[in-house]
Structures are given as C-alpha cells and as structure tokens.
Here is the input.
Amino acid sequence: MSTSTNIEIQKATAERTAEIRESLADIRARVASAAQALAVNSDSRKIVAVSKYKPSADILVCYEYGQRDFGENYVQELVDKAKELPSEIQWHFIGTLQSNKAKLLASVPNLHTVQTISSEKIANALNKALPTDRNTPLNVLLQINTSGEDSKSGLSPLSPSSFDSSQLSDVQKLAKHIVTLCPNLHLQGLMTIGALDLSLSANETERNADFERLKQTRDILVRWLQDGLGSSHDGVNVSKRWRWGDESTGKLLLSMGMSSDFEAALKAGSDIVRVGTGIFGSRKTKLSST
Here is the structure.
C-alpha cells in the first residue's frame, strides 16, 4: 500500500471499523443480488463510496476491505485526502466544479473520473490542466438533469427527435466537443441525480422516469456518436471509437442511484452507484465538521 505522503493516519476504532465493514458488506450483497436478478456479473456494477465530510480513517477502513473507488463533492477535500491516502484509490469528483478549481483537481495523480461535466468551459479547463505525464485520459461523465429541477445542475436530456434534428442539443454539442477537441479526456458516460421521490414511490412494476430518461439519452447519444462521429465529420477525423464509452464494451456507462435508491437504479440498468450514508452512516454538515 503506497501513499502520496508520509502523513500518519489515525486508525478508526475497532467499533467504527466493524460498523463500516458491516455496512459495506451489506451494500455489496445488495448490489450482487440486484445484478443476479438482471443476470449480469456483479463485477460489472461499480460502487463509488461517497466519503464527503468523512475522515480519512473511515476511508482507510473501506480501502483495507477491498474498496477502491471513492467520491468527493469538494475539490480541496479530495485533494487533501488524496495526499494522505493510498495512491491505489480511484477518486471520483461528483460535485459542482468551477473552472478556477480545475487545475487543482487535475493535479491529483489518481483522479479517475469527473462525473459532473456540463459545459465546454469546464471540459476545456480540465483538458488543459491535466499533467503531461499522466498515463491515461481522465474519464468524464456528462451530468444530465433528468428531473428538470432548478436546484440541480446538468444538461437537458435527449428525446427521440434529438437524433433527427438538424439543430444539435447541448448534450450532443458537449459530447462532440470532448471527443473531437479534448484529447486528454475520455467521454465515459452520463450521470444524473434523479428526483428521490420517484424511486421511493415506485413499486415492483413501475419504472423511475428519471432513470429511464437517462437511459434514453444514452441510447440516442451512442447512436448519434456512432453515425455522426464514427468517421470524418465536419472535417474532423475521429474514427477511433474508443474515444468514448467503456473501453471494453464501447457503450456509455450510466451513473445513477444513491444510498436511498441504488437498487432501483441498478434494476434500471445503472453501471455505477454512488453510496455514502449506506456505508458511512449519516454525514455531518460542512459547518459542523469544521
């Protein structure tokens, strides 16, 4: 286990360690059960442990129990934790990113994914800020506001008419921009924070409308990318289709579902779930954690 610095991390208590390990084991079992119901390998479903406001000691418990993917909402918090925790961790940024923080975030060597891209400005800032000695492109997900709530960030989802329209949507424009003009970024998929009440109120036969909108947006976007950017398009040759989607399957991944609705998200076809409270327990507010 290698760390970025020689900072000594205070270990979690035995009681806290047992609590976190039990919670993580429960989440893993529920993910495996959901995957089994879909007849897919549970290894194809990724759990991102959302460690916002949680101490490095808690993260280390999960790491030592085999967890490698962790998500943070604030740039400085991610940067600080990355310095003192094992370099094998794959960090996911899942908060709102300001362009003036892109350079600081991009300096984290084991930054794995930024899940909240919603503008060319942010994409350009990250593409420019990534170190030249980075071995692989940075995975990015486009954030889609599937619920249409003003309180949530993201681009509007696509509809079937988007594919045939001569006017490109914001999602298509941003995807094209990343694929053609941001060589240091890898368009891996789409992310949403749906309306929680849709998941909580749905029964066994109902589908979560927000999750369905994200799936539809993914399917339309993949088709458009393959048809429009699979060869020379507007004078730009992007024939290498590995520039978007999962490297092994070529499909765009979906990140949807959190502690309260990740099972519904998995049932709907999510590839990545973001679980915080379900693993670490209720988190403190930013004010009370200071």
About this structure: Confidence is low (pLDDT under 50) at residues 231-241.
